[in-house]
Amino acid sequence: MSESSHMPVSQQKDLHLITQNTPNGKKVQIALEEMKAMYGLDYSYEVIDITTGIQKEDWFLCLNPNGRIPTLVDNKVDNGSSEPFAIMESGAQLLYLAKKVDKDDAFGFKDDLERSECLQWIFWQMGGQGPMQGQSNHFHVYAPEKIPYAIKRYHDELFRLMDVMEAQFSGRFTGREKDYLAGNGRGKYSWADMAAYPWAIIAKYSGLTQEELDQMPHVQKWIERIKARPAVQSGCSDKYGGKSNPEKVKAMFAAQQAKH
Prior knowledge:
Helix content: 40-55%
Number of strands: 4
Number of helices: 10
CATH architecture of the largest domain: Up-down Bundle
Shape: globular
């Protein structure tokens, strides 16, 4: 169920999210919940089932030409236009919310260097963690054919990327331990953590072993630190569509292959 009652997008709240409870969906779900808790933000959302291919329909592609969730729609842009403004790509959506809603930089940084560090980790997540872990998911869990080379390639890259975070938190190279990815001193919970957390929590599902995860105690402490936040719990809850169904996704891939 969604809070939107499937009304046209333009008739939703000022900010409207089209989503599903995937790692990328959770990034923006968490962000909106944090904005609600901090600023009282009122928004609407609609959960769609991407295994049905609904994200490839014309109405959705009009909002997001890449045909992916999440898609954020601003029905009240600051320039006074009456046209809804759609934002694709979860990283861009976080930055849009940072500028539009987080006026006090509660989750951002006023200092240029700290802000740059936050952006670096968001781009690291968008260019590295998400795509590489997504490939590990595919070949480890969903691919109808188990290809050892592909499984190992993306497993090893996932392990390396998780260890990049471990090094950041542990101060392995800098000598300075951090509680969060960005910010001076021990850091501050920010947009960068919202971006990386939903992928980090499914690393075992994506192919890492418990023994490998045990080599990253600082990452595990960071996960528990963020998981304790009420807005994070709400942003990852079943109200946004429940848990993923590997068998349903496998069937979707099988159906796609049968068409070719």
